[in-house]
Amino acid sequence: MAPNSIEVMWGPGLIGFIIATVFYGISFGQYMFYLRYFPQDSKRLKLFIMTVFLFETINQFALMAVYWSILISCRRSTSLECTTEFPWQMLLGLFLSFSVIFFVQCFYAYRVWIITGNNHWVTGIICVLATTSFVCGMIVGGLGIYTRSPEVLFSSKWSPIASFISALCDSVITVSIWLFMRPARTGNVRRKSRNYINDMMWVFINMGLFSCVVAISVTVLYMFQDGLIGQFYTAAPGAMLGKSYMNSMMAVLNARKSIREREQRGYNLTELPTIPTIR
Fold first, then answer.
1. What is the CATH number of the domain that holds 11?
2. Does the residue 267 lie in any domain?
3. 253 close to 32: Cβ distance less than 8 angstroms
4. Mind listing the pLDDT tens digit for each residue in 181-199?
5. 95 in any annotated domain
6. SS3 for 193?
7. pLDDT tens digits, one per residue of 112-162
8. What pTM was estimated for this model as a whole?
9. Is 186 exposed, middle or buried (0-12, 13-18, 19+ CB in 10 A)?
10. What sign does the CA torsion over 107, 112, 118, 121 have?
11. Among candidate residues 21, 44, 46, 25, the one with its CA nearest the CA of residue 36
């Protein structure tokens, strides 16, 4: 790539990388919080969370290596590798990002399976959408391996397709949780428990909408950059995509602590004697 085009080509990606680094710091804090306050979770769940966090950590280091190579190592280099190819770490980061998204959506699919009372149709739709998005992401990675060209990688139609399907999957998850946890369906649950269910529902919804918005932004920016040579606007939300899903999942898991504490305080208050009965 020409030296004078670095700012135009990778400026959006660098901005996205900086924001993604902040997101990673938040997810690191959330993971430490999870390890401290939920040691009683099943080994299978803790292994799953550890795997997703490990993937996200490697993805973060891969992004660091990418922008170190582009902005530092190859800043004034005219070598063939620097001018025509992008770092292999970018492909690694891409694979890990789509893998994290797929894992988190599978996590939500299992939660929907429980919440909906083993509804095969709803869970099946979510699984199909999550798998389709992952396959489209792997196609993007395959094109990158074949061409070794950033133009092909960021201009491929498969990238916005993967992001759009991922956003659609998030929408199905969010709507399903709202439909099956809304007050109209939990009317037979006593009031205090119903309040905590409602709180948990809104945590699910807000986190689902957060990752959905980031995914949609990839599609929107792809349409905006369409026809503009050497301008990779989709690199900005692309860098944040996996970390938004990681934070979404961790926020849902960690929200249990505050909700359980409030529930416990509510039980303790109901057990206190009224003033006239105190001896």
1. 1.20.1070
2. no
3. no
4. 776 555 544 455 556 667 7
5. yes
6. helix
7. 999 888 899 999 999 999 999 999 999 998 888 888 777 777 778 888 899
8. 0.85
9. middle
10. negative
11. 46
